[in-house]
């Protein structure tokens, strides 16, 4: 039997008027050819780099997340290999892993020395994402944020009632406002600051005294006001019944961190603060053999000042006078001098002590209690170390730094005597000045007008922060514990910072930094801990719309990019070594990607 040709078959179909069959066949053939073409195109594109590369001289077009979860195209496992979940529980919105580890806290044998306010980090580090408060808004920009913040961003009204007689904070419609009061300066912090300089003129705010520490800071109005006088104050307080005081401070744009004087050393170097301030910080300085005051002595610069504004300074009853007398006895044994005291009324008074500038008094004391500490190989090792019960020795070279702003670029006290150290410092300063000017400030995609709180995850000599000094920002300089200890240099420059291990969570509230920066950190860090867990921590502390700026190898950046895309961040690459990520408003399960 003969097989009909294709042309004769088609003619037969036409004679029989089978047009629907012809149309269906043609349509299926067209779809088949289209699918083959799309598959070839996808295969070609997947073999090329998945990173978009831009020069720093052009404005980048970042990879932008879709506008809704339901409209997402199918994603491969290689592109989105991570499954994110929300942190759970009543404290999830303000979750701080190392301070909210209630399982570890319940097992503590004692809380007498504030052990329950210290760090107790979970292992492994959490990967969950903190929820965003309902109604959260882009923060009010600096300097207006110092006076008011959005209520919905820090929805904790307890302090309004708890401290209503002291003018800490007030609620005004959809805002919290900060009148500038405090427990010891309820009629205004400006008058309080002027009083300190009046009774001790040598303070010379912003010249002689540049770096200060405020203990039990409330909402950080003292540190906020000193910014106008070129004094940078790191305020700290524990996470306690004074609900969210550190979160208020950071939302205002004032440097602050969660910490406590308990059983462990503060995460600062020895001999770095020009002044330490305590206004009703509720610490018994003579407790436990005087360990709290001995810790202040450790971090206070030789010749530095301790300002104590508290009821024992001015109240005459037996209890308060007993506290005053025991404190005076301890300060004398440490060779501190009471250089000023002011009692202006029955409800206010302050005392100012000065730490000795040299060792002569300590070496000639009649009594050796507390004893001098032994010579230590690593004097600045304070990470998870117990408090001293001895007086820290003064360094051989303990001259006061140059006046501000000269001290920013002229360091003498903390660099090694070797010429190479000074040369390295100078080269580092020039490097960061050029990088900020040529790359970070132009074309990389950061809107610096929306940036106030910055964290440098591995600060080195603080060159990144120093190069930004003319901008209305402040930088939390972090020196990782497994890297060269340069934190004392940072303080001698007139900047602030802390020690930290990035395998653990940082002691801050969620959504408190506008920009997180790191330079070649992850190449070594990922040998000790998981990059996914570190990125989850960065997501926790960064505000929605905030920036992550990473300098690193292309291999590190590719790995980082995959994680950030899984979080629906906007991601772009510049000069094959700078990754810029912009945090989205997306949280798993709520259907929101970005605003």
From TrEMBL:
Pfam families in alphabetical order: Methyltransf_29 (PF03141)
CDD domains attached to this UniProt entry: AdoMet_MTases
GO molecular function: methyltransferase activity
EC number: 2.1.1.-
Identification of the protein by name: Methyltransferase
Coiled coil: none
A single Gene Ontology CC term: endosome
Compartments in which it is found: Golgi apparatus membrane; Membrane
Class of the enzyme per the UniProt entry, highest EC level: transferase
PANTHER family: METHYLTRANSFERASE PMT22-RELATED (PTHR10108:SF887), SAM-DEPENDENT METHYLTRANSFERASE (PTHR10108)
Keyword Transmembrane helix attributed: yes
Keyword annotations of the record: Glycoprotein, Golgi apparatus, Membrane, Methyltransferase, Signal-anchor, Transferase, Transmembrane, Transmembrane helix
GO-annotated biological processes: methylation
Family: Belongs to the methyltransferase superfamily.
